[in-house]
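Archive entry. Fields below.
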Amino acid sequence: AQRVTQPEKLLSVFKGAPVELKCNYSYSGSPELFWYVQYSRQRLQLLLRHISRESIKGFTADLNKGETSFHLKKPFAQEEDSAMYYCALWMDSSYKLIFGSGTRLLVRP
Amino acid sequence: NAGVMQNPRHLVRRRGQEARLRCSPMKGHSHVYWYRQLPEEGLKFMVYLQKENIIDESGMPKERFSAEFPKEGPSILRIQQVVRGDSAAYFCASSPPGSPYEQYFGPGTRLTVT
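PREDICTED_STRUCTURE:
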């Protein structure tokens, strides 16, 4: 069955520390993966797509098909990165996004 | 472009009443998705609509829930005879033609059933 797993509900780091938010997926097709972010009192917004291979706000994510992972990384966390982060899998066979349960990132000063 | 609009932002209903949630997609977007988020959980797909068509409703509960996206006006998610378990945040997203994966989300409607 298709599934997205984010094993950490909360990740707390100090400002300037590296961050890695884990995401694993299960999908028999060709995966297309996304990271969405929701800042406090704001709507969910797309952070990045694996296919575009870009870095947004210093975040990067690499698709590892062997490990079925799409971890989100940032070398130096900032306080303004504190938010909920959701990993999502696009199923092109059925035109739907499957979301993980989310990880709350808290960056302490 | 004002983005995806949802109203109301908060809705309180007593058990047995009906809830109507509205979603206006971004200008030029022809695809609408509804998601439900229960406390401490991620967003769960409910239904995918295009104008006047339900494309995929595999995530909708079989009873009491319905959705529409008429030719004119917003998309409506309707929950009849609400129960406490329907309390959740309901999010709508829209996407442009040809890019269904490029979803823009609304602020959500928080439904509380008392």
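CURATOR_NOTE: The first strand of chain B starts at residue 5 and ends at 7.
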